[in-house]
Structures are given as structure tokens and as C-alpha cells.
DNA sequence: AAAAAAC
């Protein structure tokens, strides 16, 4: 454990002003040596020092209050292979019961030797049970890791993975999903690839354009939209589709017969209310109980006007079709020359359907709900028109444009569920904003806030970030959202999940009254009703016709296995040339799997919330750059993350929700390329898996599998 | 139950 020696280089406690015991001198006087007694030799760390430093270093969530602020990573952190190796070593110990707290990046963890950290009594040394130490990693056998959890360590989470069965219990509860999850969601990635490769430049991302058409090809899907919907309308002028606001322009065009109700009837699927979704019909058949928890309105919201309810229940979108966009340019949509050029540099020469559909309404200042499957260009769909709209508002206000006024408050905000996604969005939006002289900045946690605050003080126009840090800075008085007139919620349905909804609501309440709201997601559904009710006015709802699984380039396979074979099977599947993304349900299991793969000679890195931000970023970039071909992640990587050429997604643990399945699967099969999704399940989970697939409208073969089976080799190819 | 998201 290299960290030990290196820690010694970090300076004496007193010198760092971290010691409370010294109390003899000002922390500011670094060189001041009042008490010579201890000066003879290098000052030693006291438990308090270490504890304080540990907290500061990790920025762990548990020890709030102290050590906040610095949190910069030590520069002695191992790199590359060594880092991975070191990481695994520490991880092994952690599993043996010694780990201080969950931060996986052991690099920063001050050694956890028992000495330093008094608290975790478990110091492995004493721990009897550590027996595991010997076989920590084989993790697969959940059996072994018994009691240690018991102790205090919450994280030992590992267990859960292994002990699948327990979960089981809940599995049976299929119903809930039904309700919540509406549509087939194609979603997941809305954002074109551009993203993740931070390294490379954002722009190209747009390459999506190149694969835009595919999506469109949905022509095949005759069903819904086409018929009922006026789609062709492309002339936004008349645009029938946005219709959503029935109030305003409902009747017109649509009037045709179908419109009001038709949604429900004709185009079942896209409807946001899953309840009505026809296809899954099976499900509901069986479970009539659909909770309808998502129907805020009718039941528990008296304040709601019937009209609003109608909107939410339908959440029926106007589906635009590929043919509607033919010949349409970004300029036709109302975007200015600079922005059009910036888009071209990003690789977006012509608008994708979702972009063409939402841009006019965004520019018109309307609230918009947009649904488009992975890679359909959602980021540009809200990013480009948002920038154009900001310029227009600025011009209308009569203020001088183009000048960066020191300390001016941001006028636009984009919220994302994960830091990686926020970074990815910024890579696309920043060049567009800069093309017209606007500035963006990222505001997310896990990194020192200094730079972020500095950027805000210099003045930015668009803030892109995650809820936690944004709310934190608002409370600190360092971020003023009162002038935010355009707010975007990416992965909006997810932002309405428990844990996210309230912070998001509080943040939205800080923005300007009456500000424009744009909600996007591949799986946008009624789950957003609460936000729609409180913050949106007569939203226009858009989606792209033909985006169904049948038109997908992803092959789905379910392997029915013995739980004990899970590790071996994953090894065989991941032992391949192409990029492979493995999803695990918990952070611990993800870490364990990466460890196991590495031990098996298959270079692998992990991505989950127990890693510090720099490691998260580094591990993801290792997959992006191709330095490693296997990434084992939790659902932190399920939505939005774009990595080119992932051709195999392995779900080590089946997801509970069909939406999660769709988002995870959407990491592959991008840009029209072929992709394969393999889900491992124990026999008793077949029925539940079937229901989930039905909801997702995915067809997949169930194949009994044991380690060494030929089809594993085929899948790995 | 888990994961994500602030210090």
C-alpha cells in the first residue's frame, strides 16, 4: 500500500492548520514553530488530524461539518495500471472488513489502519470474521460474506448482489412499474454521442446526424401517429402537433376528428400514461391495480383544473416523422447564422426530427415536453433553440448583447441527474453558446466549488449541473437563479423520482416566475406530472414517430443461469475484443465484478457513486479512449452517457424497471451500429423478466446457460 | 432495496 509512505509527504498536521489539539498557533502561520517539543522530529498525525484529513479528503457524506472545502486529490495518487491495481488491493481489504467507509478510491483514503480511525472499530485486525480476507474477491459466493455487514458498515452492500433471492421478494411486485412507466421509452440516451468523450471534442458528437435517419426510418411503424397525426405539418406555422396546448391551438388542424381522444385510442404507446398503454396490455390485464400513483391530478389535486388533467393524462405528443423534416434546415427553424455554423461544426448539418419538432415552440417561449429515443439529438433539441431564445430575449430587453458583464446572473439553467451527464451536455451546449458570445459553466458536486464560484462571479449565461451543488450554491448565496428564464430538465422523468423531485422543485422555485420550462427524456411519462402541474403552462408535447424497438439495431438475449455461475459467465462474455459495459445493481457488486474480471486477466474499471469524481471521470475516459474495454457500472451510467462503439451490454443483475432496461440497453446499438444486450437472470425470475420485456416492448429469447456453453462464445464475438 | 445528488 503505497499510500502509507506517501501520506508522510503531505505535511505535518499543525502546518496544515488541521489540528485542533495543537491549539498553540495560528493555522495561518505555516512555518511557525511555537512548540519545539514536537518539532524535533516530523510532527506526527494524531487521530484527530487523521480523522479530519480523512473527511476532508474524501468529502464523505457521513462526516459532514468538518473538513469541507479542500478536497483536492493528492497528487501522489497512483496512475494507470498501478492505480487500478492499488484500487483493487484496497478494495479487497475493504471487503475483508477493514474498510473505513465506502469511498472506493482507496487512494485518498488515509490508511484505514485501525489506528487512524478509531471509529470503525472493525479494524480488521480484530475482526474475527475477516476470515474472508482470504477469499474476498470471489465475491460471487455471497454466502461467505455473512455477518460483516452486521457491523456498522452500511456499505457492505455487496451482499445484496449476491443474495439475490431476497430481493426476490420484491420482484414479484411487478405492478408498480406498470403504472409509472409509461411509454416504451426509447429514451435513454437522448444525447447523441457527443458527449462522453470529453477528451475529444464535443462537436463531433453531433455526428449523430449521420445516423439520424435511422431513427426516422420508423416509417415502418405505420401505426399511430401517422394516421392520426397531422404530422406533416412541418411547417411549423401551422404546426398541428404542438397541439398539446389544446387550449390555444387545439382545434385547428387537428380538429380533424381524431384529435382529442385519439391519442388514447390510436396511438397508444406514446401516451404518457402507461396505464393506457395498449401494448403492455398484458400487464395490466393481470394487474389491474395499477396504482395510478402518477395521476396526481385527478385524485389528490383538487387545485387542478380538468383541463390540466387532460393534458397530463394524454401527455400525448405530436409525433413528427422523418419525412416532415426533409429539406428543413436549422435556419428554417429560426436559428441564427452563428448557431447554425456552430451546429455544423458539431456535426449537426440538418435537424433531426425531435430538433425540428421542438425548436419552434422553444423559440416561441412555450413550455415543452420532448421525447426522443437515444441518440435522437435531444441535447441540441433544447440547447440550440435555448441559446437563440436567450439572444432574442436579450435583444428585446434592450440591453447590450454580447458583453460579458461581471457578475451578471445566469438566465438559463440545465439540470441533469448525474455529473457525467452534466459534463456531456456542456460539451454540446458550450460551443453553441460561445458562438453568440454567451458563457456556460458546470455546477456539480464532487469537486471543489472554487472554480465554479469563480466562473459565476465572472458572469455566465447558462448554468449546467446537478441538483445538489446547485442548491448548495444557491443557499450559500453564490448562485442567483432569480433571472433564469429558461430551465431545462434532461432525463426529466428521472428527475422526478424520489430523492430528486424535491431538490428539483426547490431549485425551480428559485428561478424567475413564469420562466420557460423544457422537459426532455427518452422515457418521458406521467411521472413528470407533479412538475408539470406546478411549473409548466400549457406545454407542447413532442416526440418522434417510429421510434420503437422493432426499428432498433439492438439484439436482446436473456440467459437463464444458476446464480453461482454468474461470475464465470460474465467473465466469458467480457473476455472479448469490443467495448463491453456491465451493469450491476449495487456499487459494491460493480466493484467486485471489476475486481474479479481484472483478476481473471480482463482489464476492467468501474463507475459508481462510491468513487470520487476524478476516478469516475478517469475510469469512464479509459473506456472511451479504449485503454480498457470493460466498464462495470451501476445505473449511474444507465442514462445519457455516450461512449462510441459499445457493442455489448451485460446486465449482471436484471433491472427492476423497464425504463432502466431501455436506458441501459441504449448504451449500445448507437449510430445505427449493431449492439447486443445480454441479461442474466436466475430461473425464478423468468416471469418477472417477461413482464418487464413486454412493457419495454422488447422481444428476447430466454436461453438456459451454463459456463462454457457455446453460445457464450458467440455472444462474446 | 438501490442508486443518484452537497459539504
UniProtKB/TrEMBL annotation:
Residues 328-356 form the DEAD-box RNA helicase Q domain. Keywords: ATP-binding, Helicase, Hydrolase, Nucleotide-binding. It is an enzyme of class 3 (hydrolase). InterPro entries: DEAD/DEAH_box_helicase_dom, DEAD/DEAH_RhlB, DEAD_box_RNA_helicase, Helicase_ATP-bd, Helicase_C-like, P-loop_NTPase, RNA_helicase_DEAD_Q_motif. It comes from the Bacteria. Residues 1-11, 32-52, 60-302 have a biased composition (Basic and acidic residues). Residues 359-542 form the Helicase ATP-binding domain. Its EC number is 3.6.4.-. It holds the Pfam family Helicase_C. Belongs to the DEAD box helicase family. This is DEAD/DEAH box helicase. The lineage of its organism: Bacteria, Bacillati, Actinomycetota, Actinomycetes, Micrococcales.
